[in-house]
Amino acid sequence: MRQVALGSAAPALVRAALDGVGPASDDLTIGQLDVRTGVFVVDPPFFGNGDVGRAAVCGVVNELAAAGAEPRRLALGVIVEAGLPVRLLQRLVRSIREAAREAGVAIAAVDTKVVRAGEADQVFVTATAFGVHRRPAALPAALRPGDRILVTGALGDHAAHLLTLRGAPGLEQYVDSDCAPLAGLVTGVRPQLRYAAAIGGGGLAATLDNCSRARGLTLRITRSALPVRHQTRVALGLQGLDPLHAGCAGSLCLFVPPDHGAAVLRRLRAHPYGRLACDIGEVTGRPLPAVEVVGPDGTAHPLAPARPPEQVRLL
After folding, report:
1. Do 294 and 219 form a contact (C-beta atoms < 8 A)?
2. Does residue 85 have a cis peptide bond before it, meaning omega lies within 30 degrees of 0?
3. What is the pLDDT of residue 308?
4. Residue of 172, 153, 191 lying closest to 269 (CA atoms)
5. Is the dihedral of CA 291, 175, 92, 112 positive or negative?
6. Are 17 and 90 contacting, i.e. CB atoms less than 8 angstroms apart?
7. Phi/psi zone of residue 156: left (φ > 0), alpha (ψ -120 to 50 degrees), beta?
8. Quick check: 155 pLDDT over 50?
9. Residue 238: Cβ within 10 Å count
10. Res 315 pLDDT > 50
11. What per-residue confidence (pLDDT) applies to 23?
């Protein structure tokens, strides 16, 4: 099996594969510029229907999209461990290229470094996305009592897929990662949104808690309304993980005025990445930053904290 040499082979391969990817982008105006960056370490870095490269592109693009910006350009840093098979490096750059094209962003800069074997867990990726705002960015302060809380896709798929790869190999075939670029999903509903946030490694629970604290209001959701696939619930249950605390890589949390909720939901469900979008709750008028979960008996309880995270490095 061919191996990546500690030298110029890996950088040259990555540059050649990603050169010129994406549409030409010359509309970045400093006054409208928004930037999101992240360091992506996934365990394992290559998984069933994706890899750390796709996770990196989708992660920063989705952060921009949630902030209300239109993603335009992408800068990448790839740290490769010496000895990584060439086929895996080729898979990584193909994945990055395809994710960037799907997201509609141009790859403007790439840097690659090779480190000694054992120093990078195969490959790490840093990604920085640049976008433009067509209207003022939304903030959690915009939330109002009565606003509906929507999620754009199934919860916990990404965490369930990775956890089964680590703990129960073979079960991952029953639940795919949800990793996807979502800028196109929110474009059509942007004018109706009060606020949006990407659901990341901390799951929906962390996203809601952050929004509640930032606004100073209680958020109430209904557990039975959560879009969790049966196979995902089973896989997470085997690990003792609540879907509310399970990481996502292809879902957003949207806050919508009550009179726009049904229309936004219809538009989301018409998109391939929004078919499982659901209305899961509301912003209450209680001036206390908290998240409440309504159970099967109709009683609201405070959101239980996550148990100590044994499943590290989901994203």
Report:
1. no
2. no
3. 57
4. 153
5. positive
6. yes
7. left
8. yes
9. 14
10. no
11. 60
| Dist CA 24 CA 295 (whole Å) | 50
pLDDT at 134: 82
Burial code (b: 16+ CB inside 10 Å, e: under 16) for 131-168 equals: bbbeeeebebeebeeebbbbbbbbbbbbbbbbbbbeee
Write down the pTM of the prediction: 0.88
Structure token pair of residue 167? 């703990």
Task: Find out whether 217 and 284 touch, Cβ atoms under 8 Å.
Answer: yes
For the stretch 184-210, pLDDT in tens is 999 989 999 999 999 999 999 999 999
More confident residue, 18 or 25: 18
pLDDT at 96 over 50: yes
Which residue has better confidence, 102 or 22? 102
State both tokens at 96. Answer: 């990055």
Count other Cβ atoms within 10 Å, centred on residue 211.
22
Instruction: Please name the amino acid found at residue 223.
Output: R
**Amino acid type, 208:** L
| Cα angle, residue 92 at apex, residues 88 and 96 outer, rounded to 5° | 170
Backbone torsions φ then ψ of 132, nearest 5 degrees: -125, 145
Give the number of residues written for the chain. 315
- 3-class secondary-structure state, position 27: coil
The one-letter amino acid at 265: L
Residue 186 carries which side chain, given as an amino acid letter? Answer: V
| Full strand arrangement of the beta sheet holding 195-198 | 195-198, 252-256, 148-151, 278-283, 218-222, 290-294, 300-302
Structure tokens belonging to residue 313 = 């490095």
The CA-atom distances, in angstroms, between 167 and each of 40, 77, 212, 238 are 21, 30, 34, 9
Q: Tell me the pLDDT tens digit for each residue of 249-298.
A: 999 999 999 999 999 999 999 999 999 999 999 999 999 999 999 999 99
Q: Can you read off the two tokens belonging to residue 92?
A: 């990584």
